[in-house]
Amino acid sequence: MQVRVIHEKATPARLILPPDTLVSGVEIIDYGLVDSLEVNDKLREAVYSVVITSFDSAMYVLDNIQALVGDSLHKASETPTLLVNTVPVDLSNPEQYNDIKGAWKTPFVWKDYLMYVISGLLVLILAFGGYRLWLYIKRPKEVSEVKSAEPEKEPYEEAMEALSALKSRGLWENNQTKQYYTELTDILRRYIFRVYGIATWDRTSTEILEAFRLGVTKDHSYTALQRILSTADLAKFAKYIPSAQDNIGIFNLSETFVNENRPQQTDEITSEPTTSGE
């Protein structure tokens, strides 16, 4: 059935129905706005379609139809009725009733599946291309690719230049303390690896100290490295902000550590790609 709500344009209005049962014996299946018309300059008509059903023979008075116009609730100006009759069924002649038809099989049309085929092929092409790219990246590098354009600097020279460059950037002076200590410890990690061959990049500070203690018998250097790494860990992970005096002291201690562990000219230089440490 259709319900029409006429209201002033300036005033919002909507149909108000019970949630599932209009009246006893009449259920609401669905309802919604299907049209909106202008009656004149001041009035608007909203048309609602209401789908109802009933299974018992009776005359039903549908008196629960209301509309909310602005803040006021209004009942329908007319009360519709619904007459439900039972259709008699002659069970003595069942052949007059048709059986339920089976599902209708639609013909195969290859164009309907063309998009799926194309999409599948594109996915396979992309997957194959990604696999080939992965193999290319993981392939063993040629000697010409690995070879540096310039001779690699000695560990001591490289470390001192890196410390000097770090100092000139003034990171901790500009409230970049965490970045400062990250780069400082990266320099020392690489230096220790190149001088002593101790793997440092995938180790915690505690693991580095233990490896240094066992592999390098220099108590003073061990104590200095312990102080540097512990201060760096506090600054990087515990939101600790060292004082300016502490920052200067740790930097000077790092230079001292590099000097005390300077390799002899005949020592073999170990190289490792630079990677950000913890």
Task: Provide a compact summary of the structure.
The protein is α+β, with helices and mostly antiparallel strands. Among the domains are: 2-83, no CATH class; 155-261, Four Helix Bundle (Hemerythrin (Met), subunit A).
Strand arrangement within the widest β-sheet reads 1-5-4-3
What is the CATH architecture descriptor of the domain at 155-261?
Up-down Bundle
Number of helices: 7
Molecular shape: elongated
Q: Which range does the strand content fall in?
A: 15-25%
Average pLDDT level: 84
Task: Report on the biggest sheet.
Answer: 4 strands, antiparallel
Structural class: alpha+beta
CATH topology of the domain at 155-261: Four Helix Bundle (Hemerythrin (Met), subunit A)
Uncertain runs: 266-278
Transmembrane segments: 113-134
Keywords: Membrane, Transmembrane, Transmembrane helix
Protein name: Cell wall anchor protein
Question: What report would you give on this structure?
Answer:
With 278 residues, this protein is α+β, with helices and mostly antiparallel strands. The chain starts with a strand and ends in an 18-residue tail after the last helix. Helix 3 runs antiparallel to helix 7, helix 4 packs antiparallel against helix 6 and helix 5 packs antiparallel against helix 6. Strands 1-5-4-3 form a four-stranded antiparallel β-sheet, with no helix packed on it. The chain has a three-stranded antiparallel β-sheet with strand order 2-7-8, with no helix packed on it. Strands 6-9 form a two-stranded antiparallel ribbon. Helices cover 41% and strands 19% of the residues.
